[in-house]
Amino acid sequence: MNHERIVITGLGLTSPLGNDLDTYRKALLEGKSGVRFFPVRNMGDQPAGVCEFDQTKYQKRKEVRVGTRAGGIGIFCAREALLNAGLNLEELDPSQIGTYVGITEHGNVETETEVCQLFDHYDEEVKYWTHHHNPRTVANNPAGEITVNLGLTGPHYTVGAACAAGNAGIIQGVQMLRLGECDVALAGGVSESIRAYGIFAGFKSQGALATHEDPTKASRPFDRERNGIVVSEGGCIYVLERLADALKRGANIVAEILGYRMNSDGTDYVLPNPERQEECILQAIENAGIDVNSVDLVSSHATSTPQGDEQECKALRNVFGEETDTLINNTKSFIGHSMGAAGALELAGNLPSFHDGYAHATINVDDLDPNCALPGLVVKESRQKEGGIKVILNNSFGMLGINSVLILKKFED
Q1: Nearest CA to 293 among 320, 273, 267, 269?
Q2: Which of 61, 236, 327, 407 has the fewest Cβ atoms within 10 angstroms?
Q3: Which CATH architecture has domain 260-409?
C-alpha cells in the first residue's frame, strides 16, 4: 500500500440537529440539544435523537417502502455528499466508486417488525412474511442500497464495527483508495437504531439507558449525574479522494486525513479498557507523523455512562497529561449516541473548527465528575483556541472492545 495523501472533498449528513453541515454546526455552537421523546414499542416514550429528512428527495415512495431506514439514510447522505463535492455521477466511472459504510447492527428493525406483525395480526401464518425480508436484513444492505440507488458498480460493503464503525468506514475508504481499488470513496456510517426495540431494551437491562424528565438533558457525558446512553439515528457519508485527483479537478478540500488506528481491548464484552484506548490514540498519532502536542482538538467518544466516560478520560489523561493546550469536547451531549454513525457524524460537527477556530462545548455538564475533569474539557460554552485549530483527533469506541481513532488536519498545500 502506498501512502498517497487522502482528502475529504464533500460530505452529506442527517442528524437530530439538521440535514446539512451549516445548520448542524450552528446548533452545536448555540448549545442546542436535538434530543426529544420518542415512542418505543413496549417501553413508552424514551429520550432519543430523531432525524427528519425528506426520504423521497432521492427515492420513490415504493423504494422507501421496499428498502430500510438505514439504507434510506445512506442514500440521502451519499447523494448530498456527491453534490457537496461538486461531482456529477454522469461524468464518473461507476466502477471506480467504492462504498464503505460503517454500521453497529443491521436487520433488527425489520425482523422485530415482521415478527410482531405476524404474531399480532396474522396468527403466525408464515405466508404473510414479507418477501423483502432477506435483502433488507443482509449485513451489506445499507451500502448496497446506496449502490443500487446511484447505479454504482464498484466495490461495496458495510463495516461492522459496533460504535467505532463511523471511523472504521472512513478508514476503509482511505485504505481502498491507497490500494487503487477505487478512485472515489463514499465512506462513513449510518444508524437506524431508534427503530429497534431491542436496542433500548438491551441498554435498559444493562442499566445503561438514559432517563431524565427533560429529554434535552438526558445525554450528559462527564456529569456526575449521568445515567446512560441516549439512542439516536443518523448518518454521515464523506467523499474521499486522492489529493492529486482532487487538485486536478479543482475540488474544494474540506480536510486532509492524516492518520488512523484501530485495535481491540481483548478483555470484556462491554467495559472499555483504558490502556488499549490509550494505545490506539498514541498509535494513531504516530501513524499521522505528529506529536501529542500537535493535536488541537479531541472529539471524545464519551457516551454518558458512568464507567465508560471515566475509562476514556483515564486514557486521555495519560496521553495528554494534566497540563495541555489540547481542547476536548463531546457531541453526544447534543444528539445522543448515533451508534454506527457516531464517529462520522460527530467528526462532521467539528470540521468547521478548522476555519472558525472554535471548539463547540459539551452541554449538560452541570456538576462535573472529578474523575472526568480534564484540563482541556470545553463545557457549557464554545471556546476559541488561540492560534486556531489545525489538527483534530476523533475517538470512537465500541462494544466487544473495538477502538478506532482518526486524525485529520486543516488542508494546506
Answers
A1: 320
A2: 61
A3: 3-Layer(aba) Sandwich (3.40)
Q: Does 120 score more than 80 pLDDT?
A: no
What does the pLDDT look like over 182-214, one tens digit per residue?
Answer: 999 999 999 999 999 999 999 999 999 999 999
337 is catalytic: yes
The active-site residue, picked from 106, 156, 212, 301, is 301
Domain boundaries, the chain: 6-248, 260-409
CA distance linking residue 7 with residue 255, whole number of Å: 6
Please determine whether the domains at 6-248 and 260-409 fall in the same fold group of CATH: yes
Catalytic residue among 77, 337, 360, 372: 337
Q: Does domain 6-248 have CATH number 3.40.47.10?
A: yes
Q: Are 164 and 262 in contact (CB under 8 A)?
A: yes
- Catalytic: 132? no
pLDDT at 178 over 70: yes
Tell me, yes or no, if the pTM score tops 0.85: yes
Q: State the catalytic residue, choosing from 51, 77, 106, 163.
A: 163
